[in-house]
């Protein structure tokens, strides 16, 4: 049986590509680097939406695809319309080394000390303090 209490640490990062509200879009994949993920997601979108490009037709229509990153994920638009294609960063984890466990413990202790130093007040008091203009 596997020890499920073992501490984990990030081993490496992958970029996950998918289409929102679709269980069957062909572009769903994991990539080792961000630029490859973005390029292949756009190419897969063009292929699925417009068919395979003809390599013998140099005058073929280009598509106005744009990537934006409004939050923590890339979003693909085609002619300004959201395609539902998303690219997000994801960590792949492995068991933490003793040094990484010590670093995690130190970071947790630092955060707990930082929170403990905050003033104690109710949510109502905090909202009132935020709403009151500084003098």
Elements, N to C (H/E): EEHEEEHH
Q: What is the topology, as strand order, of the major beta sheet?
A: 2-1-5-4-3
Shape: flat
As a whole number of angstroms, the C-alpha radius of gyration is: 23 Å
Overall mean confidence score, pLDDT: 88
Helix tally equals 3
Structural class: alpha+beta
- Major sheet description: 5 strands, antiparallel
Oligomeric assembly? single chain
Strand content: 25-35%
Find the count of extended strands (DSSP E, 2+ residues).
Answer: 5
The CA-CA distance between the termini, in Å, is 62 Å
Fraction of residues in helices? 25-40%
Q: Give the low-pLDDT segments.
A: none
Any descriptors?
flat, alpha+beta, five-stranded antiparallel β-sheet, 135 residues, single chain, 3 helices
Summarize the structure.
By secondary structure, this protein is α+β, with helices and mostly antiparallel strands.
